[in-house]
Amino acid sequence: MAFNILIVDDSPVMRKVINRTVNLSGIEVGNIVEAGNGKDGLEKLEENWVDLILTDINMPVMNGIQFIESLKTDEVMKSIPVIVISTEGRDTVVQQALSLGAADYITKPFQPEEIGQDILKILGYDVEE
Length: 129
Ligand SMILES: [Mg+2]
Hints:
single chain; about 130 residues; alpha/beta; Rossmann fold; 5-stranded parallel β-sheet; 5 helices; 5 strands; globular; binds magnesium ion
């Protein structure tokens, strides 16, 4: 089974890095959809079903917190697991994202293995700790 993934980040370079990390993670990757901010992400989700969302926090137009908030109020989209990947590491923001329902919060700079393991775990693969 291949997994479709949405990557939301305002930095094209970071989207590319995350895209590559996902492809090296060991999961079978289907479609990877990219968006530049939360609003763009919500629009992409109207046309593409994804199994996992990886989102940044600090973005123009709609930030990651607002994005997660919108997702979690949607009956269908609220079931999609969300992993935050961000340079924003302030405790209040991390706690806010997690209490809104983010499955995990990874701060940049990250180790590719860290993201890979996290994705596998959240998608229900057996991961050796
Ligand atoms: Mg950003």
